[in-house]
């Protein structure tokens, strides 16, 4: 009887994880850890670009191990009928373990005709990739905390603003009362102006008489000058 593939609900699976291992790689584990630390927690595409431009002998085998982990993740998703984007994967864990020597022993010359025994080890590389959400770093957490503080400070400032407006309105009312009082006190000045207006016709008549007197004097002066010229 033909066995059917089990159906998996995509909505129940939010992430995909896959592991790839490279064993018995020639090289010191200490030197390989210098390279593996560069890609820990990075996105897959960024990790591959870092390994491509890293001038270390262990960079090439580590990049091949990472590509194998990406392929394992896509294959596993196809088996479970899940569609994932390889660009969404990131390196969750990666480490290097020390392997055996496997008769990789050499003799190193030493002073006074002696020889030192040198053991060259193998190393094992393990890389795990996943598509779940990344944990937030300390910088991101600090930035979110600062944003939340700013958001909380804005409503407080808005609540304090109406009180200031009420104070300003109260301050504006006081000068109006003072102006009214001053207007009431200055009313006698208006009466003085009325009296002056009543006396204005008399002042005008006096000025007119002075002008007419000045004109007569000028006429008399001209007559005298004419008579003197006739006598001459």
Assess the beta-strand content as a share of residues: 15-25%
The shape is elongated
Mean pLDDT: 76
Structural class: alpha+beta
CATH topology of the largest domain: Ribosomal Protein L22, Chain A
Q: Uncertain spans, ≥5 residues at pLDDT below 50?
A: 1-14
Count of discrete structural domains: 3
How would you sum up the major sheet? Answer: 3 strands, antiparallel
Strand order of the largest sheet: 1-5-2
How many alpha or pi helices?
5
Q: How many beta-strand runs?
A: 5
Summarize the structure in words:
The protein has three domains: 13-104 and 116-136, Alpha-Beta Complex (Ribosomal Protein L22, Chain A); 145-173; 186-217. The termini are far apart. Helix 2 (44-52) packs antiparallel against helix 3. The chain has a three-stranded antiparallel sheet with strand order 1-5-2. The chain has 232 residues and is an alpha+beta fold. The chain has five helices and five strands, in the order E-H-H-H-E-E-E-E-H-H.
């Amino acid at each position: 009887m033909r066995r059917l593939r089990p159906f998996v609900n995509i909505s129940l699976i939010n992430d995909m994880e896959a592991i790839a291992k490279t064993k018995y790689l020639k090289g010191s584990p200490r030197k390989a850890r210098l390279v593996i630390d560069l890609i820990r927690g990075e996105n897959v595409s960024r990790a591959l670009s870092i390994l491509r431009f890293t001038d270390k002998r262990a960079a090439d085998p580590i990049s091949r191990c990472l590509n194998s982990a990406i392929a394992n993740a896509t294959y596993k998703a196809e088996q479970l009928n899940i569609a994932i984007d390889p660009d969404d994967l990131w390196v969750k864990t990666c480490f290097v373990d020390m392997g055996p020597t496997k008769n990789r022993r050499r003799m190193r010359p030493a002073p006074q005709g002696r020889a030192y025994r040198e053991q060259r080890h193998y190393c094992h590389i393990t890389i795990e990739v996943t598509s779940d959400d990344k944990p937030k770093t300390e910088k991101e957490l600090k930035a979110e905390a600062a944003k939340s503080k700013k958001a909380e400070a804005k409503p407080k400032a808005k609540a304090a603003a109406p009180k200031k407006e009420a104070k300003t309105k109260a301050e504006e009312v006081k000068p109006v009362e003072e102006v009214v009082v001053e207007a009431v006190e200055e009313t006698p000045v208006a009466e003085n102006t009325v009296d002056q207006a009543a006396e204005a016709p008399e002042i005008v008549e006096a000025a007119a008489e002075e002008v007419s007197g000045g004109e007569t004097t000028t006429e008399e002066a001209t007559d005298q000058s004419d008579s003197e010229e006739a006598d001459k």
